[in-house]
Specification:
This protein has 707 residues and is an alpha+beta fold. 45% of the residues lie in helices and 22% in strands. The strands form four sheets. It has a six-stranded antiparallel β-sheet, with helices on both faces. A hairpin with a 4-residue loop joins β7 and β8. This is diguanylate cyclase. It is an enzyme of class 2 (transferase). It comes from Geomonas diazotrophica.
């Protein structure tokens, strides 16, 4: 086919409408230092792009040709171009396509293309008018053009013109060509590795009478290549590593029928063959394995078509694998998001540790494990939760950073995957009896590169070794687990500080500042809903003297016991605080004064009946309390008013003899009390002596008892 006709035929393809095409042919008889390729035909869409492309590709045309595969390049100010090397009728050619650019324009590189000093802005309007594309789109165009060029290269001879040969595979006719073209179209529509392999191998068997076919593809980790029999061979043929793969796809053997030699036989002992033809599977510079045909002579024309099929198969496999990886990553992200929501609902450290270990073990199907956290001193480690072993026993173990497998991971911050603890040189230790398998995974728990602990898992359910995929999955989850541990610790620390800021450290009751805030909230609610609210002030009688006579430790204990009595006498909705010293305040929402008096009497009686430490040494042989009661709305409508009213009632109780309850009086009650007869003095019996003694009398009695 004339060179110009080849370009004209290619330009009929819709995908090449915006491209300039130039065909280069190798010169004959040129010296090694001269350029070996010269332009022999061109169809130019954009002169500027053609000129830039010429400067870029022509200098290294020989290098591009030697690579033997289509090349996609970015050059200049963001231009894209492709080069396809091929041989036709014994001559070497390079086809160059250019004329598109990427979305963004590199002005600095564009400046070097401008004339007279590099004014990039003079070229900018023209460059902006060019069609845009990305690398993947240009790569797909290059691959499609390569396939079309391969078809043009095939000799157009009839069956009668073919030489008499002993191998029908060399007699490639329209049927084989049609079968391959159909297979290429079918490959574009499949979405699984199995379907992709099935289409290619079915075509090879039917069109080229292949006797036996095998395929080698990378495993999940990409380090080894399991070989699978697809036609006429056992399914499992063994596994080869990267070095052995090169033995099959070396340039002197690839796409040629060669003897099944000793090295090949040693790499795949399960395969018994005389000859083989291996077609490398390669896409975007990545080795994907090979397709091998055994005991069938594949001659040049057939090899050409099979090579096209293998190339298309490799490209499709690459897309499928990348799509699967992307889907897997998306699924993992969604799963981690779901796990995040689950873990965010947990506010207890112990429950969090339990959940983290359970989730981690489920992710990789482990049956034993533990979580270890590094102590604050950074030297020791503590087991905080276990799976498959007793936690109490595990917590007794003495663990140190840098010692043992987990200690080494804690020190280095690097994850560790061990397939066999006895054979792995990094650990080299005898397996323990409690472990059913010899494989384990240790993952560091990190926060901003600081190791806070280690996650250990062992004994996969099927007792097989853990894989690199398990390690990657667990590493992703470990990052989430570390964040959740930090979050819970921060929350607990925050709650602890918040609790300290609103509670009394001795009694554990709310403090005066918090009481004011809560009482104002309850008052607002009572005003809105028309509810009663009552405040009770409780003050221990002669507590200073008790403290002096019995000691401060006894005094502290008496305050804590009093706080317990008050809490036990109230409802959960009620509020109790230590107001200061030996004075307490209880707030009873939705409670009238009459109802509160019953509660107050219960508190007074319980304090009087309680046996406090050292009270037998005081003159009255018991510790008592006085109480003042004030209610909303009759005694006040604000915090200050209610506190003032209850405080006055409390001191009236003190004045009347202590160990009693006095309710605050409204203004009308106070007026009526002026016309009432004075209250008779109580009889001074031993039982009510504390109610009539004033402070001086009590102190005098105390001193006499000590003397």
């Amino acid at each position: 086919m004339p060179f110009g006709d080849l370009l004209t035929e290619l330009k009929k393809l819709p995908m090449l409408a915006r491209y300039s095409l130039t065909l280069y042919r190798r010169r004959s008889g040129t010296v090694a230092s001269a350029r070996r390729f010269e332009s022999c035909a061109t169809l130019v869409e954009d002169p500027l792009c053609r000129e830039v492309s010429r400067h870029f590709f022509e200098e290294d045309m020989e290098v591009f040709f030697e690579e033997g595969t289509p090349s996609v390049c970015r050059y200049g100010g963001g231009f894209f171009g492709f080069l396809i090397p091929f041989n036709m009728s014994g001559e070497d050619f390079c086809l160059v396509g250019d004329g598109v650019r990427e979305e963004s324009i590199d002005l600095w590189q564009l400046a070097s293309l401008a004339h007279n000093g590099g004014d990039a802005f003079s070229l900018l309007p023209h460059v902006e008018s060019l069609c845009t594309a990305n690398y993947e789109e240009v790569e797909e165009v290059a691959e499609q053009v390569r396939r079309r060029v391969e078809l043009y290269r095939l000799p157009s001879r009839t069956q009668q013109e073919l030489p008499a040969v002993a191998h029908p595979q060399d007699a490639v006719g329209d049927e084989a060509l049609y079968a391959v073209s159909q297979a290429l179209e079918r490959l574009d529509k499949v979405g699984t590795v199995t379907a992709c392999i099935a289409i290619c191998c079915e075509t090879i068997v039917t069109a080229f009478q292949a006797a036996r076919i095998a395929v080698a593809l990378p495993d999940a980790e990409g380090k080894s290549f399991p070989v699978t029999g697809v036609w006429g061979l056992p399914e499992e043929l063994g596994t080869i590593d990267g070095d052995s793969l090169q033995l099959f796809v070396a340039p002197d053997k690839a796409k040629k029928t060669v003897l099944w030699d000793g090295k090949m036989r040693a790499a795949l002992p399960e395969v018994t063959a005389t000859v083989c033809t291996v077609f490398p599977l390669k896409a975007q510079g990545e080795r994907l394995g090979f397709l091998a045909i055994f005991d069938t002579d594949i001659l040049p024309n057939a090899a050409l078509l099979i090579s096209m099929l293998a190339g298309a198969m490799a490209g499709k496999l690459s897309v499928i694998v990348k799509d699967a990886t992307r889907s897997k990553e998306n699924a993992l992200s969604e799963r981690l998001m779901s796990l995040t929501d689950t873990l965010l609902q947990i506010d207890s450290k112990d429950l969090l540790y339990e959940s983290i270990l359970k989730i981690a073990s489920d992710l990789i199907e482990a049956t034993q494990g533990s979580i270890m956290l590094i102590d604050k001193d950074g030297v020791g480690m503590q087991i905080v939760f276990t799976l498959g072993m007793t936690l109490n026993i595990a917590r007794c173990l003495q663990l140190k950073v840098g010692k043992g497998i987990a200690g080494m991971v804690a020190k280095t911050g690097q994850p560790l995957l061990v397939n066999d603890v006895e054979k792995d040189s990094r650990v080299a230790m005898a397996n323990r009896l409690r472990f059913k398998s010899k494989s384990l995974i240790c993952i560091p728990l990190k926060l901003k590169e600081k190791v806070i602990g280690v996650l250990n898992l062992s004994d996969k359910k099927n007792l097989r070794p853990f894989t690199h995929s398990d390690l990657q999955l667990l590493t992703s989850f470990a990052n989430l687990a570390s964040l959740m541990i930090e979050r819970t610790e921060v929350l607990e620390e925050s709650e602890r500080f918040e609790q300290l800021s609103v509670t009394d450290p001795l009694t554990g009751l709310y403090n005066r500042r918090f009481l004011k805030s809560r009482l104002e909230e309850e008052l607002n609610r009572s005003i809105r809903q028309g509810l009663n609210l009552t405040v009770i002030f409780i003050d221990l009688d002669f507590f200073k003297s008790y403290n002096d006579l019995c000691g401060h430790l006894a005094g502290d204990e008496a305050l804590k016991l009093t706080a317990d009595i008050i809490k036990d006498s109230l409802r959960e909705m009620d509020i109790v605080a230590r107001y200061g010293g030996e004075e307490f305040c209880a707030v009873l929402p939705g409670t009238s004064k009459a109802e509160a008096m019953i509660v107050a009497e219960r508190i007074r009686f319980e304090i009087e009946s309680k046996r406090f430490p050292g009270e037998s040494d005081i003159p009255l042989r018991r510790l008592t309390a006085s109480l003042g009661v004030a209610s909303f709305p009759e005694d006040g409508r604000t915090f200050n008013d209610l506190v003032h009213a209850s405080d006055i009632a409390l001191y009236e109780a003190k004045a009347r003899g202590r160990n009693r309850i006095v309710a605050a009086r409204t203004s009308s009650q106070s007026a009526e009390s002026k016309h009432e007869a004075p209250e008779p003095r109580p009889v001074q019996t031993q039982s009510n002596l504390a109610k009539t003694l004033d402070f001086n009398t009590y102190l005098e009695a105390s001193l006499q008892s000590k003397s």
